[in-house]
Amino acid sequence: MNRSVFATMIIVTLLFLTAGCAKSPEEHHQAGVRCLEEQKYDQAESHFLKALAKRPGLADAHYRLGYIKSLQDLPDQEEAEYRRAIQIDANHAQAHFSLGIIHRDRGELDLAEAEYKKAIAADAQFAQAHNNLGYLYFRKGLYHEALQEYRRALEIDPDIHFVRSNMEVAQAVLDDRLKMADYDLFERAIHLENIDPDSSILLYKKVIQANPRFAVARFNLGNVYYREVMSQEAIAAYQGALAVDSTYVEVYNNLGNVYERERKLDEAREAYQRAVSLDSSHVAACSNLASLLFDMDMTDEAMVYYKRLTELLPESPPAHFGLANAYLKQGSLDMALETLNRVLELSPGDVNALNNLGVVYVSKQMYDEAISAWKQALRQKPKGAMEKQIKLNIEAAKQQKKQQKENS
């Protein structure tokens, strides 16, 4: 073959290969979203910029670039990206919401309110926008309007538990259980919780002294004590909150956390059960109770709450994984197998699910399937003890398979 013709064929082939490998704007956008989820922000920014270079009208790429600029502490560029997103798509709810936060932080409450309302107009199910709008109403002294927005947020997403605290604050002001003169102290205490916990504790105590029936301050004080590993003080604060409001679900859940850390397991179980009895859809309490009962070898009881979790969170791999473990511990191998396969549908390559799948197959004497599951787990490159354990499992399964053949 003529060399020049051959060279031309190679170039043409390479051009075709290059064209075939080029990502579309949508593919760059999707890759950017994945990088954001993995906290690979530089790579995410690169993908979004490439997507926009090929298709400047991708509003969501501008919004996500704005989010990255917020992490880089570049407020002017952050705002500019949100505005570009809205220029392209006037109904981009997240961009309006993010602009609302920018205006709120500047003290421009009327502008923030307008942006939150635009976010809600674009997406009526945007729970966080309803919550933030409620907070603005609260700051303006419109307490009934604030409560209405908080209730709407909870109707949309009952798992945004801090909204319940916001509701309690607004209701406490209406009921004269919290003086607005002390509210700024309360907000300052919240701000200092992670920066200066000792000062936060002192401020909460001042608020409680002036407003003894304000349960949220007692709850927040308990949370600070809990994080500072001051368990007895945390228990006392939580119990003080319950003395004011015996239906405060989050308090029972967090009280259970303290008791569990202190290895007072019966008390922890009672606290979680009380939380779930008050709110059967409280995800954290159901999860905590299921895990505790599992650890206490009360597998049948744990199963009830693991099943409830999968009903509350049907697309959650951890919820189904917990249920699978309960089935495995119970000896219900077929149900464990079915549930682990559901985990892998939701989260392909989940190392823990693949590992336990191998355990189930070995229990069913299906050694080839077990080895296959464990090899697939190793392809996910687990680290440390997990990698070592899986390799040991594979060797043990090979020996068991060999022995099975010899005995047959």
CATH topology of the domain at 314-408: Serine Threonine Protein Phosphatase 5, Tetratricopeptide repeat
Shape: globular
Helix and strand run? HHHHHHHHHHHHHHHHHHHHHHH
CATH superfamily of the domain at 314-408: Tetratricopeptide repeat domain
Number of helices: 23
User: Which regions contain 5 or more consecutive residues with pLDDT less than 50?
Assistant: 1-20
Summarize the main sheet: none
Structural class: mainly alpha
Number of strands: 0
CATH class of the domain at 314-408: Mainly Alpha
CATH architecture of the domain at 314-408: Alpha Horseshoe
- The helicity comes to over 70%
Termini Cα gap: 62 Å
- Roughly what is the average pLDDT, rounded to an integer? 91
Describe this structure in words.
Helix 4 (about 60-70) packs antiparallel against helix 5 (about 75-90) and helix 19 (about 315-330) runs antiparallel to helix 20. The chain is globular, with a radius of gyration of 27 Å. The model is unreliable at about 1-20 (pLDDT under 50). The protein has a domain at about 315-408: Tetratricopeptide repeat domain (Serine Threonine Protein Phosphatase 5, Tetratricopeptide repeat, Alpha Horseshoe), CATH 1.25.40. It is about 80% helix and about 0% strand. It has 23 helices and no strands. The chain is an all-alpha fold and about 400 residues long.
